[in-house]
Amino acid sequence: MDFVYKKSREGFKPIEERLHLTEPLKIRKMKKMMLVLLVSFATMAQAQLLSFKASTGDVEMDGILTDVDARARLDINVFKNDVALQFNIAKSQIEQAIRILSPGDLFMAAQLSISIGRPFETVVETYKTNKAKGWGAIAKEMGIKPGSAEFHAMKKSMKSKGSKGGSSGKGNSKGSGSSNGSGNKKAGKGKGNK
């Protein structure tokens, strides 16, 4: 092996002649390692969202949840913010729940908690322990019977809130429709401006 000597403060020290060849090799290895880490991180971030199959026992409700789940996956941050605002749930609770629930399941848990008047965390815990039964059975156990007035009210709420999920995009305000609404049949329940 041939050595080149370079003068330094300590005296002459040998330096490999091929040093300039090993340095680019190290850089290439580092670049490959960074690429592998980047791809691994991106894969883990995508894998964080769990798969979803709606299981409410109601075809229309399953369709709503499937649609909500698909749109949520397009921009999960918008979805989490929308759910936090629509259902008045702390963002920290949403962040915890999205680790164990798919977006569609998270939406259903939020809707069910509002419909039965129980805390969101209670519904999430109930779902975790009874996941195999499906949302229909869980809702029934928690007080929402299929076909009941509460069930139809929850379904109606899901339709309106589900259609808003992830709707931060721009649109026009020119629409058409009837202005013959029926109003609020439970008048006097809200807080008015004085």
Overall description:
It is a single chain. This protein has two domains: 3-47; 59-164. The longest helix is centred in the first third of the chain and has 29 residues, at 19-47. Mean pLDDT is 74; it is low at 165-194. It is built from eight helices and two strands. Helices cover 58% and strands 6% of the residues. It has helices at 19-47, 59-74, 76-87, 91-98, 103-116, 120-130, 135-141, 149-164, and strands at residues 3-8, 11-16. A hairpin with a 2-residue loop joins strand 1 (3-8) and strand 2 (11-16). The chain is mainly alpha-helical. Helix 2 (59-74) runs parallel beside helix 8 (149-164). The chain has a two-stranded antiparallel ribbon.
- Strand percentage lies at 5-15%
Helical/strand content category: mainly alpha
- The H/E string reads EEHHHHHHHH
Mean pLDDT: 74
Return residue spans where pLDDT drops below 50 for at least 5 consecutive residues: 165-194
Strand order of the largest sheet: 1-2
When the domains are counted, the total is 2
Helix content: 55-70%
Terminal-residue CA separation: 92 Å
Shape: elongated
* Tally of strands: 2
Contiguous helical run count: 8
Radius of gyration: 28 Å
